[in-house]
Amino acid sequence: MDQGSATWLVLLAAVVAANAPYFSKRVLLVGPRPAHKSPWWRILELALLAVAVLMLGFGLESSIGQRQPQGWEFYAASICLFLVLGFPGFVWAYLRRHRGD
């Protein structure tokens, strides 16, 4: 896999992973389905999925070539980008008027 397609794969995985906790009513995306899903479950899911996307990116980077060391700035920017990518799901889950729910 070349660098361009690996980048797009990681970005696509980040968009899907950042929105998945908001569109899924199950706990940890596969667990039981409670009557109301707590925001703390969504935060935990976001953290776990952010780590999974970072691991995917690190794996693809090391398969392409040598993995570069990263400082705290990289992780801070990655978490902020992940939260921004999850904004459509947040709007869907909390700000949109749901009919019949």
From TrEMBL:
It comes from the Bacteria. It holds the Pfam family DUF2818. The chain crosses the membrane at residues 41-60, 72-95. InterPro entries: UCP019883. Keywords: Membrane, Transmembrane, Transmembrane helix. This is DUF2818 family protein.
